[in-house]
Amino acid sequence: DATHAEHIEKIKSRQYVGLENNIYFVPGHLGIGLVDGYDSMGFNMSKPHLRAELEADLVRISNGEKDAQIVLAEQIVKYKEVFQLAMEQAEKIDTALAQYLNTRPVAVAADEMVVNVPQSVTKCQRCRCNIVVKQRQPNGSFYLSCQGYPQCRCVLWLPSSIAGLEIADTTCPECGPDVRQLKITFQPGAMGQYYPTHHVGCLHGCDTRLLEMLGIQSIPSVFQERSMQQEQPNASASSSGYSSVSSNARSSSSSISNQPQRNVFNNNLPQRPSTNLRTQFQNSFVDNDSDDEYNQGVTNRGTNNGNNNNQRTTNNRQSWTMESNVNNDSDDVCCTCGIPARKLKVMKESVNKGRFFFSCSKPQEDRCNFFQW
């Protein structure tokens, strides 16, 4: 096809190959050196395996057996990994070419060739891409994100009680060899007497006590919930889990407000230490898209009713207000204090305007940081 013809002309113009009698392709020194160099890296980049896998996936897309966005995310990750590995071993290409071009490669300091390749915690159950540790700026909080972004928007936000997070060299003996343990550094006193400042643990489900202390779900539970949301695209996004909210769901505040709300915290769990009661995170599992909107508006929320609106906002704009003319079903939703939450309505001009959410019902000075759509 046209693409293959362009590739052929390119390798000819770069003198990777030549033509004998204008019929037969003959590899040149540059072409042979590149093939030998790539083969010495331990993977057959010179072979058409990656292209063949893509062609097979394109056929599956045509047959309706595979989603195009998932295929795109998978292919990007595969090619990115090969590129990163090639960058780490670029000197092998220099060595191979030197044999055919009769030149000596220029020595490069090792510290100048370091390429930061993020390690994987586990695989995303939605798109099979790697889940990696990332750190937000400027607040420095940590989260786990799928490398299939933006096609896959799965993300797990972690509480700010975690001061440091690294992937350990060990795999989890309970969850299997495909799950890496995490080296967690807690803020001093954040976990009280329950955990030391430095702890090696797993977020895949085996360390249930750690998950309870952090107030998050296990990764498999989150992905199962994400899969159910994909099967029911019209359902509202849950307040926890690797969720992805569609544009239709965002624009339809009435349909979202009528959906049953779920508390991300289990009131039957053992009481956490007092230093961890005022959890500094909301909606541990949310969509990447909603995070910016949340950070922009959540600092303005409060018990805003009646005549004190102007007192609570310095910019003369009310972002959140009480919704007093609707059925308050907050009895089913409790905040981290263990009391029924208060139902509020978004009044800020945004995609979430008119949408209902739950917050702590205590006075502002005693209020915890609970937040749930």
UniProtKB/TrEMBL annotation:
Q: Where is the composition biased (Low complexity)?
A: 234-258, 295-315
Q: Name one GO biological process term.
A: DNA repair
Q: Where is the GRF-type domain?
A: 335-373
Catalytic activity from the UniProt record = ATP-independent breakage of single-stranded DNA, followed by passage and rejoining
Under the heading InterPro entries, the entry gives: Topo_IA, Topo_IA_cen, Topo_IA_cen_sub1, Topo_IA_core_domain, Znf_GRF
Question: EC number(s) of the enzyme?
Answer: 5.6.2.1
Q: What does this protein do?
A: Introduces a single-strand break via transesterification at a target site in duplex DNA. Releases the supercoiling and torsional tension of DNA introduced during the DNA replication and transcription by transiently cleaving and rejoining one strand of the DNA duplex. The scissile phosphodiester is attacked by the catalytic tyrosine of the enzyme, resulting in the formation of a DNA-(5'-phosphotyrosyl)-enzyme intermediate and the expulsion of a 3'-OH DNA strand.
UniProt similarity note = Belongs to the type IA topoisomerase family.
- Polar residues bias spans: 224-233, 259-287
Gene3D superfamilies, sorted: Topoisomerase I, domain 2
Provide the alphabetized UniProt keywords.
DNA-binding, Isomerase, Metal-binding, Topoisomerase, Zinc, Zinc-finger
Protein name per UniProt: DNA topoisomerase
In this entry, which stretches build a coiled coil? none
The Gene Ontology terms for molecular function here are:
DNA binding; DNA topoisomerase type I (single strand cut, ATP-independent) activity; zinc ion binding
